[in-house]
Specification:
Layout (H helix, E strand, L loop, with lengths): L7 H6 L2 H11 L3 E2 L1 E6 L5 E6 L3 E5 L2 E7 L7 H9 L1 E6 L5 H6 L10 H5 L3 E2 L8 E2 L4 E12 L6 E12 L19 E3 L3 E3 L6 E2 L10 E2 L8 H10 L1
Antiparallel strand pairs: 1-11, 2-3, 2-6, 4-5, 5-10, 6-9, 7-8, 9-10, 11-12, 13-14
Length: about 230
């Protein structure tokens, strides 16, 4: 198998779109989520992002990246204005519609309507959710960090409540993403489904890890006995 090496100068000389495809592919599979927001006039906005990351569990914080604010960024403007937004995971049945939200619609155009996704307000929350999403998070804006090296911005929010499908939530708190039939993204436009290999036990120096069931129990009596023999 032949390898290829690309230097920094070769990256710099690539066409803009080609370089964007390549560099966006390097970080591997990423989650696909739709950010729902509204302005003070009640105009809904929906935009797909592949940069949502976990920042901490206590308090429960999530962050995502917004490109430089050199042109209109409706989601960013709405979040900074109202302080509330939603994160809606993208499932297999709406991936094409979700991708279409990346088009640059006018501010007065609701992407919900443009791509035929259903907006709704839940529990009086001040931002719209995507009805079709099997995993929805209500977020409150906490912090905005400008990354000086390229002027992108990280938006940090605190989870206010979560709505998901009950059978995907395991007794130990693990959420079975595959049971929700969510997609992942690689690069800018490649969507994938996943196949879980296994869950693994908490890693400790005294013994090797062992496989767990989806519910977080040792996967079999034999596996548990093998684990005990290693302690």
């Amino acid at each position: 198998m032949e390898n290829i090496t690309l230097s920094k100068s070769e990256l710099d000389q690539m066409a803009t779109r080609e370089r964007a495809h390549l560099v966006n592919s390097l970080s591997g599979f990423k989650s696909a989520n739709l950010i729902g927001s509204t302005d003070h006039n009640g105009n809904y906005n929906l935009s797909i992002v592949s940069s949502v990351i976990h920042l901490g569990s206590n308090p429960p914080l999530l962050g995502f990246i917004v490109r430089p604010h050199q042109v209109e960024r409706h989601s960013l403007e709405n979040i900074l204005s109202t302080s509330f937004y939603t994160i809606n995971a993208v499932s297999t049945d709406v991936a094409v519609k979700a991708h279409q939200t990346s088009a640059r619609y006018p501010k007065q155009t609701s992407e919900f309507d443009a791509v035929d996704l259903t907006s709704y307000i839940h529990n009086g929350f001040k931002a719209p959710f995507v009805l079709e999403s099997p995993l929805k998070m209500a977020m409150k804006f906490i912090e905005r960090i400008t990354i000086e090296s390229n002027q992108t911005e990280m938006i940090i929010g605190e989870i206010q409540f979560i709505e998901t499908i009950a059978h995907a939530l395991m007794p130990d708190g693990y959420l079975d993403i595959e049971a929700l039939e969510l997609v992942t993204v690689s690069g800018l436009d490649s969507y994938h489904v996943t196949s879980r290999m296994h869950r693994l036990s908490y890693a400790k120096t005294q013994h090797n890890t062992y496989p767990l069931t989806r519910e977080g129990e040792p996967s079999s009596w034999e596996a548990f006995k093998n684990h005990l023999s290693l302690i």
